[in-house]
Amino acid sequence: MDETAYFPGRTESLVRTVTAAEVEAFAKATGDVNPVHLDEAYAQGTRFGHRIAHGMLAASYISALLGTQFPGPGTIYVSQALNFLKPVYLGDTLRVSVTVTKFRADKAILTLETAIQNQRGDKVLAGEAVCLVGDVASQPRRAVSGAAAD
Predict the structure, then answer these.
(1) What is the rounded average pLDDT of the residues 47-76?
(2) Is the model more confident about 43 or about 135?
(3) Strand 109-117 vs strand 93-104: parallel, antiparallel, or unpaired?
(4) What is the pLDDT of residues 128-145, one digit of tens each?
(5) How far is the C-alpha of 55 from the C-alpha of 52, rounded, in Å?
(6) What pLDDT, on a 0 to 100 scale, did the predictor assign at position 124?
(7) 3-state SS assignment for residue 150
(8) Is the CB of residue 107 less than 8 Å from the CB of residue 5?
(9) Helix, strand or coil for residue 20?
(10) What CATH number has the domain spanning 3-142?
(11) Measured between alpha carbons, how far is 17 from 149 in angstroms, rounded to an integer?
(12) How far is CA 105 from the centre of its chain?
């Protein structure tokens, strides 16, 4: 474990574009078949006007960042607080970011601010993650399949 990597203010991010295929796969995997996510005609009659992605699908991109990029493989979630601020629409391109706020070296506990912004710069999700990083493998940063690393 490279403790020097966990300095306050360090920010890492990835970019993902939400697709209909991802939304439909998420609905199938979770059983959340709310028509606002799956049926455009239904969604047009809602306050959103179009289909929206599951909030937890967007939040799962944070998990992808933590487990594959920073801190990386071996990261274990302890907790995640989430505030869903705006809807995420199919086709939105999201910048998922984590910023180190605290590191407790004696317990290898990392606290991060988590945020997601859409292509217009609107913050759509905000929160805080706490992770165990004692088993994180030291390895070069890699892009997530289907995502571009920044």
Answers:
(1) 96
(2) 43
(3) antiparallel
(4) 999 999 888 664 444 444
(5) 9
(6) 98
(7) coil
(8) no
(9) helix
(10) 3.10.129.10
(11) 13
(12) 24
